[in-house]
Amino acid sequence: MLSTLNPPKRLLYGPGPSMVEPRVYDAMSKSIVGHLDPFFFEITQAVKTGLNTCFGTANEFTVAMSATGSGGMETAVANFVEPGSKFLVFANGFFCDRLTEMGKRQRAEVIRIEKPWGETWTPEEQREAILREKPNTVAYVAAETSTGCWTDGTALCEAAHEVGALVIADCVTALGSMPINLDQTGIDIAFSCSQKGMGCPPGLSPLTVSPRALNWLTKERKSLIPTWYFDLKLLSEYFGGAKRYHHTAPITMFYALHEGLANIADEGLEKRFERHRKNRNAFVAGIEAMGMEMHVHRGHQLWNLMTPKVPAGVTDMDVRKYLMENYGIEIAGGFGELAGKVFRIGLMGVLATEKDTLFLLEKFEEALRASGFTPKASALPAAKAAYAA
Ligand SMILES: *Cc1c(COP(=O)(O)O)cnc(C)c1O
Known about the structure:
CATH superfamily of the largest domain: Type I PLP-dependent aspartate aminotransferase-like (Major domain)
Number of helices: 14
Helix content: 40-55%
Mean pLDDT: 97
Strand content: 5-15%
Structural class: alpha/beta
Radius of gyration: 21 Å
Number of domains: 2
CATH class of the largest domain: Alpha Beta
Number of strands: 14
Low-confidence stretches: none
CATH architecture of the largest domain: 3-Layer(aba) Sandwich
Shape: globular
Bound molecules: pyridoxal-5'-phosphate
């Protein structure tokens, strides 16, 4: 028998989806309008402005794709990687592999510059690889959710532009939680999702394109874009000037993203970034006080997704199960190269507060003890000291 839903209450401390802002849920219960209604285009315009602020760009072409983050990734690759062209992927985690896979399906010549999962390249290494390979398009993952590692793309973009290449950056986890500085970095195409740093449910993929990349797409790309749904030239006639029907946009999701962006604007973007950074620092202080280690070097840790190493003798599944069964807390484990080796813990949006960080640390320590680990010291005093500092 089908009856009214009653979902369990979870505390989403994983890599996403993250908790949804209460005001976003409220916005989602409002009446929909048509997908060609002037009110809908007011919303897409406001969403564009809000997204540009979060990305740190003045781009004219910024949209929310009707898709999850992977749809934004597919859009970036399908539009900006031509068949037979040279596609250079900086590969240091799971989502770099997904970019590689998409590049192959576009029949590009894919070349990978590898690093172990959780490490990143020096500016010199980025530069050397690009000048050597002279690709048409370069892709990297700014915030690698599978490892917790940040890659700065400044030198990469500079070198890419010297050889006439476009740069795609996966900014899925970072958007709304830490600075991306798109224009300053020189990124040409970036995409994200609604359900990680933005405090909304999954369903939309913010995507932005630089004037340079747009010029290439409209004037220099020779072959037909091999996907209809993700063809940015067609989409620009819907979201841009002509406002011509392309697909029926998920109106409720646009309400959600609009409200999530309004919530970010009310807090202030810089304040919000700083809030995430502070909680990350307190979390790391707590982890290290227990005698555990972080997988990623301090200078490259994300501000909203942390990867403590699983201590020797502990099975990560025991800890995760304990947290879920006793407190409804969801955290994630590692996968691929990092399976069984790290925990992946998100402090994003709603849960990136002192109270929720300390709550998580307390329960995480309890779960670790229950799984056979004896901490050197308790996590909470060190975390509290980090807040006070
Ligand atoms: C989550 C994620 C994706 C994929 O997004 P979906 O919304 O799951 O399709 C891509 N790249 C990174 C870095 C991610 O964290």
